[in-house]
Amino acid sequence: MSPTIRRFWRDVSVGEHDGDYVVLLDKRPIKTPDGKLVRISQGQRVLAWLLAGEWESQKDTLNAHSLPLTSLVSRSIDGLSNPNTRADVINRLLNYFQTDSVCLHDTHPRALVDLQQKYYSPIVDWARSTYDIDIQTTSDIFALRQKNASVEKLRDIVSEFSPLKLAALERAVMSAKSFLIGLALVQLHITVEEAAMAAQAEANAQTQFWGELENAHDLDNTAMRQVLGASACTAIGA
Questions:
Q1: How many domains does the chain have?
Q2: Nearest CA-CA partner of 177 in 68, 96, 88
Q3: Where does this one sit in the cell (predicted)?
Q4: 115-143, pLDDT tens digit by residue?
Q5: What is the Cα 94 distance to its own chain's centre?
Q6: CA-CA distance, 142 to 228, in Å (whole number)?
Protein backbone atom coordinates (compact mmCIF):
# COMPACT_ATOMS: atom_id res chain seq x y z
CA MET A 1 0.00 0.00 0.00
CA SER A 2 1.36 3.42 -0.97
CA PRO A 3 2.05 5.78 1.92
CA THR A 4 -0.32 8.70 2.37
CA ILE A 5 1.20 11.96 1.16
CA ARG A 6 -0.21 15.11 2.66
CA ARG A 7 -0.49 18.26 0.58
CA PHE A 8 2.78 20.05 1.23
CA TRP A 9 2.29 23.06 -1.07
CA ARG A 10 0.19 26.17 -0.86
CA ASP A 11 0.38 27.73 -4.31
CA VAL A 12 0.25 26.22 -7.80
CA SER A 13 1.37 28.14 -10.87
CA VAL A 14 2.69 27.67 -14.40
CA GLY A 15 6.18 28.87 -15.23
CA GLU A 16 8.72 28.44 -18.02
CA HIS A 17 11.97 26.52 -18.26
CA ASP A 18 14.18 26.53 -21.35
CA GLY A 19 11.26 27.37 -23.60
CA ASP A 20 8.82 24.84 -22.13
CA TYR A 21 6.06 25.20 -19.57
CA VAL A 22 6.46 23.70 -16.10
CA VAL A 23 4.00 23.36 -13.22
CA LEU A 24 5.26 24.92 -10.00
CA LEU A 25 4.30 23.96 -6.46
CA ASP A 26 5.43 26.88 -4.30
CA LYS A 27 7.85 27.81 -7.10
CA ARG A 28 9.29 24.28 -7.30
CA PRO A 29 8.66 22.36 -10.56
CA ILE A 30 6.93 18.99 -10.40
CA LYS A 31 8.90 15.95 -11.52
CA THR A 32 8.17 12.48 -12.85
CA PRO A 33 8.51 9.34 -10.68
CA ASP A 34 12.00 8.95 -12.19
CA GLY A 35 12.91 12.44 -11.05
CA LYS A 36 12.78 14.14 -14.45
CA LEU A 37 11.31 17.60 -14.93
CA VAL A 38 7.71 17.57 -16.18
CA ARG A 39 7.89 19.81 -19.24
CA ILE A 40 5.06 20.87 -21.54
CA SER A 41 5.82 22.31 -24.98
CA GLN A 42 4.89 25.89 -25.84
CA GLY A 43 2.25 24.60 -28.24
CA GLN A 44 0.33 23.01 -25.36
CA ARG A 45 -0.20 25.92 -23.01
CA VAL A 46 -3.72 24.75 -22.14
CA LEU A 47 -2.38 21.34 -21.12
CA ALA A 48 0.08 23.00 -18.75
CA TRP A 49 -2.75 24.85 -17.03
CA LEU A 50 -4.84 21.68 -16.87
CA LEU A 51 -1.96 19.94 -15.09
CA ALA A 52 -1.76 22.86 -12.70
CA GLY A 53 -5.48 22.49 -12.09
CA GLU A 54 -5.02 18.84 -11.10
CA TRP A 55 -2.53 19.83 -8.41
CA GLU A 56 -4.56 22.81 -7.25
CA SER A 57 -7.61 20.57 -6.79
CA GLN A 58 -5.81 18.24 -4.35
CA LYS A 59 -7.20 18.43 -0.83
CA ASP A 60 -5.40 17.59 2.41
CA THR A 61 -3.89 14.39 1.01
CA LEU A 62 -2.56 13.60 -2.44
CA ASN A 63 -4.89 11.45 -4.56
CA ALA A 64 -2.87 9.95 -7.42
CA HIS A 65 -6.05 8.82 -9.22
CA SER A 66 -7.07 12.46 -9.64
CA LEU A 67 -3.86 13.27 -11.56
CA PRO A 68 -4.53 11.49 -14.89
CA LEU A 69 -2.91 14.19 -17.03
CA THR A 70 0.19 14.34 -14.85
CA SER A 71 0.39 10.55 -15.06
CA LEU A 72 0.21 10.60 -18.86
CA VAL A 73 2.84 13.29 -19.25
CA SER A 74 5.14 11.48 -16.81
CA ARG A 75 4.67 8.24 -18.74
CA SER A 76 5.71 9.97 -21.96
CA ILE A 77 8.87 11.31 -20.34
CA ASP A 78 9.96 8.34 -18.23
CA GLY A 79 9.00 5.54 -20.60
CA LEU A 80 8.06 6.49 -24.12
CA SER A 81 11.14 8.51 -24.94
CA ASN A 82 13.03 5.20 -24.94
CA PRO A 83 13.07 3.52 -28.41
CA ASN A 84 12.88 -0.02 -27.01
CA THR A 85 9.96 0.82 -24.75
CA ARG A 86 8.19 2.56 -27.63
CA ALA A 87 8.56 -0.52 -29.83
CA ASP A 88 7.24 -2.82 -27.10
CA VAL A 89 4.25 -0.56 -26.45
CA ILE A 90 3.38 -0.29 -30.14
CA ASN A 91 3.53 -4.08 -30.50
CA ARG A 92 1.23 -4.50 -27.53
CA LEU A 93 -1.25 -1.93 -28.81
CA LEU A 94 -1.37 -3.50 -32.27
CA ASN A 95 -2.33 -6.80 -30.66
CA TYR A 96 -5.61 -5.09 -29.76
CA PHE A 97 -6.13 -4.26 -33.43
CA GLN A 98 -5.86 -7.92 -34.41
CA THR A 99 -9.05 -8.73 -32.48
CA ASP A 100 -10.48 -5.23 -32.18
CA SER A 101 -13.91 -5.09 -30.57
CA VAL A 102 -15.20 -2.56 -33.13
CA CYS A 103 -14.53 -5.12 -35.87
CA LEU A 104 -16.77 -7.71 -34.21
CA HIS A 105 -20.34 -7.06 -35.36
CA ASP A 106 -22.95 -9.26 -33.71
CA THR A 107 -26.18 -10.37 -35.35
CA HIS A 108 -28.23 -10.25 -32.14
CA PRO A 109 -29.65 -9.01 -29.83
CA ARG A 110 -31.16 -6.05 -31.65
CA ALA A 111 -30.09 -3.52 -29.00
CA LEU A 112 -26.44 -4.52 -29.39
CA VAL A 113 -26.61 -4.57 -33.19
CA ASP A 114 -28.03 -1.04 -33.18
CA LEU A 115 -25.32 0.26 -30.84
CA GLN A 116 -22.57 -1.36 -32.88
CA GLN A 117 -23.91 0.16 -36.08
CA LYS A 118 -24.09 3.56 -34.42
CA TYR A 119 -20.67 3.58 -32.77
CA TYR A 120 -18.51 0.84 -34.36
CA SER A 121 -19.19 1.28 -38.07
CA PRO A 122 -18.24 5.00 -38.29
CA ILE A 123 -14.88 4.29 -36.61
CA VAL A 124 -14.10 1.40 -38.96
CA ASP A 125 -15.15 3.44 -42.01
CA TRP A 126 -13.01 6.38 -40.87
CA ALA A 127 -9.91 4.22 -40.38
CA ARG A 128 -10.36 2.54 -43.75
CA SER A 129 -10.70 5.80 -45.66
CA THR A 130 -8.18 7.85 -43.68
CA TYR A 131 -5.35 5.33 -43.81
CA ASP A 132 -6.35 3.42 -46.96
CA ILE A 133 -6.21 0.07 -45.20
CA ASP A 134 -8.25 -3.10 -45.35
CA ILE A 135 -10.05 -3.79 -42.07
CA GLN A 136 -11.80 -7.11 -41.62
CA THR A 137 -15.13 -7.24 -39.77
CA THR A 138 -17.02 -10.35 -38.77
CA SER A 139 -19.62 -11.75 -36.39
CA ASP A 140 -17.31 -14.66 -35.48
CA ILE A 141 -14.72 -13.74 -32.86
CA PHE A 142 -12.65 -16.82 -33.73
CA ALA A 143 -12.42 -15.73 -37.38
CA LEU A 144 -11.34 -12.17 -36.64
CA ARG A 145 -7.81 -11.49 -37.82
CA GLN A 146 -6.38 -8.46 -39.60
CA LYS A 147 -4.07 -8.56 -42.60
CA ASN A 148 -0.36 -8.01 -42.01
CA ALA A 149 -0.29 -5.13 -44.49
CA SER A 150 -2.89 -3.25 -42.43
CA VAL A 151 -1.05 -3.94 -39.19
CA GLU A 152 2.25 -2.72 -40.60
CA LYS A 153 0.73 0.43 -42.05
CA LEU A 154 -0.76 1.31 -38.68
CA ARG A 155 2.59 0.54 -37.07
CA ASP A 156 4.25 3.07 -39.38
CA ILE A 157 1.62 5.67 -38.49
CA VAL A 158 1.83 5.38 -34.71
CA SER A 159 5.62 5.07 -34.82
CA GLU A 160 5.62 8.72 -35.90
CA PHE A 161 3.67 9.79 -32.81
CA SER A 162 5.45 11.95 -30.27
CA PRO A 163 6.08 10.34 -26.86
CA LEU A 164 3.17 12.34 -25.45
CA LYS A 165 0.73 11.31 -28.17
CA LEU A 166 1.82 7.68 -27.89
CA ALA A 167 1.22 7.83 -24.13
CA ALA A 168 -2.28 9.17 -24.82
CA LEU A 169 -2.92 6.37 -27.33
CA GLU A 170 -1.63 3.72 -24.94
CA ARG A 171 -3.89 4.88 -22.12
CA ALA A 172 -6.93 5.19 -24.41
CA VAL A 173 -6.46 1.75 -25.97
CA MET A 174 -5.96 0.08 -22.59
CA SER A 175 -9.08 1.76 -21.23
CA ALA A 176 -11.33 1.14 -24.24
CA LYS A 177 -9.82 -2.30 -24.99
CA SER A 178 -9.78 -1.23 -28.64
CA PHE A 179 -6.96 0.04 -30.83
CA LEU A 180 -9.28 1.75 -33.30
CA ILE A 181 -11.29 3.57 -30.63
CA GLY A 182 -8.07 4.83 -29.07
CA LEU A 183 -6.66 5.89 -32.43
CA ALA A 184 -9.83 7.72 -33.46
CA LEU A 185 -9.85 9.52 -30.11
CA VAL A 186 -6.24 10.74 -30.11
CA GLN A 187 -6.58 11.73 -33.77
CA LEU A 188 -9.51 13.86 -32.58
CA HIS A 189 -11.96 12.16 -34.94
CA ILE A 190 -14.38 11.19 -32.16
CA THR A 191 -15.32 12.78 -28.86
CA VAL A 192 -14.67 11.33 -25.43
CA GLU A 193 -18.37 10.49 -25.13
CA GLU A 194 -18.39 8.71 -28.50
CA ALA A 195 -15.28 6.75 -27.53
CA ALA A 196 -16.84 5.72 -24.22
CA MET A 197 -20.12 4.72 -25.85
CA ALA A 198 -18.26 2.61 -28.41
CA ALA A 199 -16.16 0.96 -25.71
CA GLN A 200 -19.23 0.20 -23.60
CA ALA A 201 -21.61 -0.83 -26.38
CA GLU A 202 -21.96 -4.41 -25.15
CA ALA A 203 -22.37 -3.37 -21.51
CA ASN A 204 -24.95 -0.76 -22.47
CA ALA A 205 -26.91 -3.31 -24.50
CA GLN A 206 -26.96 -5.63 -21.49
CA THR A 207 -28.11 -2.74 -19.32
CA GLN A 208 -31.02 -2.10 -21.67
CA PHE A 209 -32.08 -5.72 -21.22
CA TRP A 210 -31.28 -6.43 -17.56
CA GLY A 211 -31.29 -2.98 -16.04
CA GLU A 212 -28.47 -1.07 -14.39
CA LEU A 213 -26.66 -2.17 -11.26
CA GLU A 214 -26.87 0.67 -8.79
CA ASN A 215 -23.57 2.59 -8.41
CA ALA A 216 -21.44 -0.04 -10.21
CA HIS A 217 -22.03 1.23 -13.74
CA ASP A 218 -21.75 4.84 -12.63
CA LEU A 219 -18.28 4.19 -11.24
CA ASP A 220 -17.17 2.36 -14.40
CA ASN A 221 -18.56 5.11 -16.63
CA THR A 222 -16.87 7.87 -14.65
CA ALA A 223 -13.49 6.12 -14.51
CA MET A 224 -13.46 5.38 -18.24
CA ARG A 225 -14.43 8.91 -19.21
CA GLN A 226 -11.75 10.33 -16.93
CA VAL A 227 -9.05 8.25 -18.65
CA LEU A 228 -10.36 8.90 -22.16
CA GLY A 229 -10.75 12.60 -21.40
CA ALA A 230 -7.15 12.80 -20.21
CA SER A 231 -5.99 11.02 -23.37
CA ALA A 232 -7.92 13.41 -25.62
CA CYS A 233 -6.65 16.52 -23.80
CA THR A 234 -3.08 15.27 -23.94
CA ALA A 235 -3.30 14.48 -27.66
CA ILE A 236 -4.30 18.02 -28.64
CA GLY A 237 -1.22 19.58 -30.15
CA ALA A 238 1.00 16.62 -29.18
A1: 2
A2: 96
A3: Mitochondrion
A4: 999 999 999 999 999 999 999 999 887 88
A5: 14
A6: 28
